[in-house]
């Protein structure tokens, strides 16, 4: 991994959300709901929700990264897992900040694909090695990304929590 990094500011994040929303709208995709992958996807889902006028937002908690460049062997869905009844017959947009390995997105995409009418994914960044090629990507990169919400250490360190990047 290179020492060079992508640096996303909050201002540039706003630009990314408008660009992604425009690409989704121009494509004619009208999601019934946006499913965010917590934690980084929460910001993306909120931004896209406002830009696309979608109020039906859900959260899926997935644990995978344990530090910069370190992961669990496989991503794990954490409770509560969305009720598939809530997803049936819906067009779902899965939102995350980055498709790095793509393992997290694949887990969520595969979960949705069995229960929804249509599923598509939107990310700010997609890396070349991602297992999932997202329909909507703001920027492709092979660098580590400094997101404005995670570049600084936590104000409080909770010893019972696994640290992630």
TrEMBL record:
GO molecular function: glycosyltransferase activity
Domain Phosphoribosyltransferase: 14-151
The keyword Cell division is assigned to this record: no
Transmembrane regions: none
One Pfam family hit: Pribosyltran
Assigned keywords, A-Z: Glycosyltransferase, Transferase
Entry protein name: Phosphoribosyltransferase domain-containing protein
Organism: Nocardiopsis aegyptia
